[in-house]
Amino acid sequence: MAALLPFTVTHKDPATSARAASLTTPHGVVETPAFMPVGTCGTVKGVAGWELDRLGPQMVLSNTYHLVLRPGVERMVQLGGIHRLMGWEGPILTDSGGYQVFSLAARRALTEDGVVFQSHIDGSMHSFSPESVVDAQADFGVDVAMVLDECLPFPVEPSAVDPSVDRTLRWARRALSRAEERREAGGWAGGLFGIQQGSVDPDIRRRCSDQLAAMAFDGYAIGGLAVGEPSEVLHEAVDFCAPMLPRERPRYLMGVGYPEDLLHAVACGVDLFDCVLPTRSARTGKAFTSRGEVVIKNARWADDDTPLDPDCGCPTCSRYSKGALRHFFISKEATSVVLLTIHNLYFFLSLMRGAREAIMAGRYGEYRDRIQSNRNMGLGD
Ligand SMILES: [Zn+2]
Fold first, then answer.
1. Contact 87/137 with Cβ under 8 angstroms?
2. Set 95, 143, 218, 309: catalytic member
3. DSSP 8-class letter at 159
4. Global pTM?
5. What separation in Å is there between the alpha carbon of 145 and the centre of ligand 1?
6. Is 274 annotated as catalytic?
7. Backbone angles phi, psi at 230, to 5 degrees
């Protein structure tokens, strides 16, 4: 069996379960806790590769479902793989697409072998199996691949959870054997993460974790959260889900979330995050700042010549005022999305960099409380 991606926990916060660690991938070392910007279709929307270099994320995320549909696996290979496509030579993780396929609801059919679904682009029929999803990610050349899982909605009929988790576990076993075959065959040296499911039921989450832990995954994700549950429910679920996952491997909370959710999950021992919030919010004119959120179209910013965030060192804040950003946004200039995206990503990346430094200094709790009280003070909308 091929060796797992090296992962070392270097610092533990004395008062919380927060930890600083490093994960070595074929395209470099990921220092955690880390936030991964999302590039669903193979590009972080509005951000060129050289801008990504400047922002310096530890790893970026893309999506198997979207890339399999378009441009397709063969064309991805023809175009030189995912790093070449994205214009980014750092570590890349791809989500399996389970979440996207299961969101299609009426347009998919589930079998033991996998899932058959209709493309949201042109209505054509496609199928995913645990093996085909690993093959696609290995063909793309990703650094971290994710297993195909069944992502349940919230709330869900309790009797549906156990059979679904059983299937996710059977699929996880099949995905792992395929990943081992691909690594042994050569040409791909990425890792594979398993995904814990079980809705908000602690007993089922525990059972799922224990069975996944018995399989040699490179890391373990918490899936099936941030699917519409209230934030107290999310936080409580992270409280019990995170410690169930093996401590000697990276833990990844999928699709979460707001800065407060990230800070909470870091304190529970989560290492990796991804979320569309910073990029999607930029497109709707919302900026995250150290003093809360700013809705840039609001008339109160029209004559404001100060930056979005007085504490931000990003290229947008160093050069543009809120008044200018508001003007670009209401004039529908593409530049406004680019500038807000860069600021928002910088904010999330700095938040996690600060968390890592605070953990290394043994003062994570203090850091989290300070960030939260500044944000609650508000400057924004
Ligand atoms: Zn900024």
1. no
2. 95
3. G
4. 0.97
5. 31
6. yes
7. -65, 160
Question: What are phi and psi for residue 216, nearest 5 degrees?
Answer: -85, 70
Annotated active-site residue 305? The verdict is no
Average pLDDT on 10-32 reads: 98
Structure-block tokens of residue 297 = 């179209």
Mean pLDDT of 176-186: 97
Query: What is the pLDDT of the chain when averaged over all its residues?
Result: 96
Distance from the CA of 312 to the center of ligand 1, in angstroms? 5
Give the pLDDT confidence score for residue 362 in this predicted structure. Answer: 98
Residue 49's nearest CA partner among 1, 108, 90 is 90
Residue 303 in 3-state DSSP? coil
The amino acid at residue 1 is M
**For the structural domain made of 7-275, what CATH number should be given?**
3.20.20.105
Q: What confidence tier does 379 reach under pLDDT thresholds 50, 70, 90?
A: low
Q: Where are the domains of the chain?
A: 7-275, 282-377
CA dist., res. 195 & res. 217, Å (int) = 10
Q: How far apart are CA 260 and CA 311, in angstroms?
A: 18
- 217: tokens are 């995954």
Is 60 exceeded by the pLDDT of residue 364?
A: yes
- The pLDDT tens digits for 75-134 are 999 999 999 999 999 999 999 988 888 888 778 888 999 999 999 899 999 999 999 999
Band (204; pLDDT cuts 50, 70, 90): very high
Burial class (CB within 10 angstroms; exposed 0-12, middle 13-18, buried 19+) of 214:
exposed
DSSP 36-104: EPB-TTSS-TT--HHHHHHH--S-EEEEHHHHHHTT-HHHHHHTT-HHHHHT--S-EEEE-SHHHHHHT
Tokens (6 digits) for 149: 């899982």
Q: Name the catalytic one among 261, 271, 274, 309.
A: 274
Joined tokens for residue 212: 């996944």
